Amino acid sequence: MDLGQINPVLLAASLMVAATPILLAAIGEMVVEKAGVLNLGVEGMMITGAVVGFAVAVNSGSPAAGFVAAALAGAGLALLFGLITQVLKSNQVATGLGLTLFGLGLSSLIGKPYEGIKAPSLGKLDIPLLSDIPVLGPVLFRHDPMVYLSLLIVLGVWAGLKYTRAGLVLRAVGENHTAAHALGYKVIRVRLAAILFGGASAGMGGAYLSLVRVPTWVEGMTAGAGWIALAIVVFASWRAGRILLGAYLFGGVSVLQLNLQAAGVAIPVEYLSMSPYLVTILVLVIISLRGNHGAPGSLGRVFHASS
């Protein structure tokens, strides 16, 4: 065992990369749940975004095109979920689980021809002057554009929900859809817009895995990342700032366990591999014991215009 070979600077820089796909999926799901909709299909949207983004990037040679295609693919699956649950009034939990199974199967079908192919690389965005700062430069200012885009999305969601009329309407729909409808707000439209945003964010999160984090296509490569994103929303008590904290916490644990494996720590690999998920479960248990979750009042409830 040689812990001296673990570089703290590289560890911290890797943390941001590891957290980005979870952060994108979680912030999208938070917006969906803020609108009063529970979409358990995040895993399915992520894996679909991963395979579609990878396929488009390989065929076009453009990672940027891959991310756009992944966002559209995730939004497409989300729209399917939205129509079934909001228009046809299907049960949200059952439909979300079905969406995950559908996404996993669809990705396996689409991805078969792309196994073993390397994705075109997404170049890093070295910020002038700032990237040369000792320690902070490599940690904060030498990442690919998607890392910074994810942070901008979190900032935009926080500001939008807190300071804009659209954010106020979305929160009103999520807290009490009957009262929002009585005030004249289009509950179904607001929820569909939130669902589309959540799907696009999850799709980009999946594409980040296949185009940056790995970067290749492997069947089932999300490996539960969508479920972790759902857990982080609860951990964050539906607050954008805490979403960032939760995603980076999970990313940090994931990177740390990989580094500990490389350092030859005398702990079975299986225990190290399961540690990120154990930490997530532990955090959720602690939060449930506290009791004050802050969940939107209409979360998961079916809206009927006549009610």
From TrEMBL:
Record's keyword terms, sorted: Cell membrane, Membrane, Transmembrane, Transmembrane helix
Annotated signal sequence range: none
Keyword Thylakoid found: no
Membrane topology listed for this record: Multi-pass membrane protein
Name this polypeptide is given: ABC transporter permease
Compartments it resides in: Cell membrane
Spans traversing the lipid bilayer: 6-25, 37-58, 64-84, 93-111, 145-161, 192-211, 217-238, 245-268, 274-291
InterPro entries: ABC_transp_permease
Record lineage: Bacteria, Pseudomonadati, Pseudomonadota, Alphaproteobacteria, Rhodobacterales
